User: Fold this.
Amino acid sequence: MLNLDNIKIAIIGLGYVGLPLAVEFSKKYRVIGYDINIERINELLKSNDSTLEISKTTLENVLMTDSNSNVGLSVTNNSELIKDCNVYIVTVPTPTDKYNRPVLEPLLNASKTISKFLVKTNFVIYESTVYPGVTEEECVKVLQDGSNLKLNIDFFVGYSPERINPGDKVHTVTKILKITSGSTPEAADFIDLLYRSIIIAGTFKASSIKVAEAAKVIENTQRDINIAFVNELSKIFSLLEIDTIEVLLAASTKWNFLNFKPGLVGGHCIGVDPYYLAQKAQEVGYHPEIILAGRRINDGMGKYVAHETVKLMLKKGIKILKSKALILGFSFKENCPDFRNTKVIDIYKELTSFGVHVDIYDPLVDAEEVGHIMN
Assistant:
């Protein structure tokens, strides 16, 4: 079993989750950050982070200048450079396809890359959000097939779900309590110890990998359902000509009222994770009604906002055809350049279908990248 004095960590995936994690680990350990996106690697080598999660000064301080140092971060798109690592942490995206089915290819491809370099006593830890069973039933198979090694005899795995909140400068990676788990009790102890060495908020060691996977996927599912509830309330109160915000303000005076507000649900987590849980539920013969109902409500809010806008324009006597509208903000949330799964697109498309000319302004997003997904 490894100990913390002789580890070299590879972080697979340097996005919103992987980069902050790599930076924190690099303050105590030798870390290799690997990403297949050469443009991402090139910007990081210049100490620039387009996700705005890590400052230029911080990157300059942790990026390796001495290859013999026992601490620090180096970044690369060359997988050969991670072959000497003994702890691999996977932080790649787990999206859904156009039919809202889980897409595990990035996760399995990362596992395949790791399998080429896996040797005895190595650890592979997954942080990507998945449905219960993916780590042990899908990822481990790829690791074993590619390495000819056996789980819990030659190598060990763990699951420690990410809890990054993009754009949040208060609840950063070290200040959020971390769930950990391992494929054996000893592996779980090591993984917990590893994360406790950097996580100020502490850790919670789950009883199994599947428990840790399930805990993560229900966190965002619960939030999605609660937002769907207040979104439905907002539609009802609109018909009753009652101010939704005033209702919520009054109701929140009760000590146990949950303070959620209506709005668009996008991003890579809340709008995606419920589908992972629903997929697994359906595989075992259960049709999840509340989860999918919440998804339908939230997925339809962009069109609803557009329709309400058109109704207000008509009431004000504004000609719809060839009118001009400006949408301020394109990313899925404020103060964040991440526009994955943004529902602003739905507003834009619905308004343009009525003949409205729509402009969008958001100083944080890359206009060229937005152009690719809008066309």
Observations:
- The chain has three domains: 4-207, 216-299, 302-375.
- The domain at 4-207 is CATH 3.40.50.720 (Rossmann fold).
- The mean pLDDT is 94.
